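Render this sequence as a predicted structure.
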Amino acid sequence: MAHIADQLKAEGNALFKSGDYSGAEAAYTAAIARYAQNPLLFTNRAFARLKLRAWDGVLDDCLHSINLLADNFKAYYYLAEAQLALNHPHEALSSALTAYEQVLRVTPPSANVHPISQLVLKCKKAKWEARERERARGRGQLLAELEDALDMLTQGEVGQVQAALDRGEMGAVEAEERRKEVLEAGRKKLEECRSVFAIADPEHGERREVPDWLVDNISFEVMHDPVMTKTGHSYERSTLIEHLKRSPTDPLTREPLTVNDLRPNLALKQACADFLENNKGWVVDW
């Protein structure tokens, strides 16, 4: 049975590469029916279902794969993507961090570190955004209700795009481009709404956001003493030194790296200090 499953997996891979995600999902499903003990079959199907935006199926596949193989960064990565899409930022952040911790242990070094680190940051921002919404509810129910309404409107438009894709009225590439346009338009509407409220209530309506350049790509916390590697990446000194004790590589590029290669990033350190000083009332909660 295993060899037939491998053949079906190969068919699924070919269909996936051609952009036929529904066909790939069907092939992986047939392979799983033949041999359900291969965790890679579930991660492959999860990836196809991600493309199809079948979030519940992604969750199910990832959990099956993890049950078969605990050290499974791809499954945790896809799981985080689906959890984030389903508006579960706390769970998504936990899954993304697990994926990140696991990929750093892969030998030889994996090339997947950077997209996973970006997903961690995206999940952390989503979690922060959820907290900000709760803060909005605390200072004014109207803004919170408007934010929720705009979010529901955006999700409804995304659903319409998915429905058009399911009906064959547009291709996968066109649907993905349209989905991105809808999400960007929704983001701009949300920002405009918040700006209006901020002008009306400047004391409580300020936008609280930590910029990407301030965040360490190891701990994903706010930096205080950034150092630069020879590849030009900056990290918090203490977390990078701890990382180098376990693995003498740049966490993002995986190129060889030692403590002697580190240099203080004085300009970034000053920028971090300024930001922390100007936002010390809330940035500790990040």
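Summary. The longest strand covers residues 226-228. The mean pLDDT is 89.
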